[in-house]
Write a structure and sequence with these properties.
Layout (H helix, E strand, L loop, with lengths): L2 H17 L5 H8 L8 H8 L6 E6 L2 E2 L3 E2 L6 H10 L4 E5 L2 H4 L3 H9 L5 E4 L6 H8 L4 E5 L5 H13 L3 E6 L2 H8 L5 E5 L11 H6 L8 E5 L5 H8 L5 E4 L1 H4 L4 H9 L3
Helix pairs in contact: 2-7, 4-6
The protein binds indole-3-glycerol phosphate.
Indole-3-glycerol phosphate binds next to strand 10 and helix 12.
Length: about 260
């Protein structure tokens, strides 16, 4: 595991251990009955795919370990509504505080401001977090293969599916892709960011996409800035793209999303 993932996994386990006593599984399940049903994350991505473009998962992200503070004026509900107006098919909202300045309240505020399906962008190291995610209203969860073993990945996916959520299984190299393809989720994300060097290279999606058949739904993640980037990724057979920084750095994120979605 890379140093950064090691560090995140360690504090995440501590966080979960501290939170669990305050919210038992039955307490979470009681909350789950009060949130609206899962909105069909994968379904929206597939339904909105246009011939010369990719469906957009627009990310609500204030900061990151590699870039520091990305956006000063940060109101999750306002950004979420602006992304929806700009044509996003789904949203991704960071809830990790130590590395991304995220928060659970950002997720809840963003999802309540839109009708789009929303993925909770969080580092999952315990199945309990899947119930927690659904109790916040999550429509999908992220399963990061670089951080966990196959058994935990399978458990997270099974729990997500049991709650009617989708699981985006994230890989960034060929061994992780091989592991991911044995799991029960059809939704695979290829992260163009190298988690050791933080370098981004769209070639990662081009290379790894060749391992994926038509029974999977592919999402290209990270480092996507221009309609030319989108055109390049569309050729890999990807259905969707996950974009954060390039949108968050622009004042008008509605226009930014529209520009990115306009074929080159
Ligand atoms: O800001 P970018 O380069 O457009 O990337 C978005 C998204 O892919 C990135 O935030 C991300 C991909 N996988 C993650 C896992 C955890 C936290 C963040 C991420």
């Amino acid at each position: 595991m890379s140093d950064i993932l090691e560090k995140i996994a360690t504090y995440k386990r501590t966080e979960v251990a501290e939170r669990k006593p305050a919210a038992s599984l039955s307490a979470l399940e009681a909350r789950i009955t009060k949130v609206s049903a899962p909105r069909g994350f994968q379904r929206a991505l597939v339904a909105h795919k246009q011939p010369h473009s990719l469906s957009l998962i627009a990310e609500v992200k204030k900061a990151s370990p590699s870039k520091g503070l990305i956006r000063e004026d940060f109101e999750p509900a306002t950004l979420a509504a602006a992304y929806q107006a700009g044509g996003a098919s789904c949203l991704s909202i960071l809830t990790d505080a130590p590395s991304f300045m995220g928060h659970e309240s950002h997720f809840v505020a963003a999802r309540n401001a839109v009708t789009l399906p929303c993925i909770r962008k969080e580092f999952l190291v315990d199945v309990w977090q899947v119930a927690e995610s659904r109790s916040l209203g999550a429509d999908a969860i992220l399963v990061i293969m670089a951080m966990i073993d196959d058994a935990l990945a399978a458990d997270l996916i099974a729990a997500a599916h049991a709650y009617g959520m989708d699981a985006l299984v994230e890989v960034h190299d060929a061994p992780e892709m091989e592991r991911a393809l044995k799991l029960a989720s059809p939704l695979i994300g290829i992260n163009n960011r190298n988690l050791r060097t933080f370098d981004v290279d769209l070639k990662t999606t081009e290379d790894l996409s060749a391992m994926v058949g038509p029974q999977h739904v592919l999402v290209a993640e990270s480092g996507i800035f221009t309609p030319q980037d989108v055109a390049r990724l569309e050729k890999t057979g990807a259905t969707a793209m996950l974009v954060g920084e390039s949108l968050m750095r622009q004042g008008d994120v509605t226009q930014a999303a529209k520009n990115l979605l306009t074929p080159a």
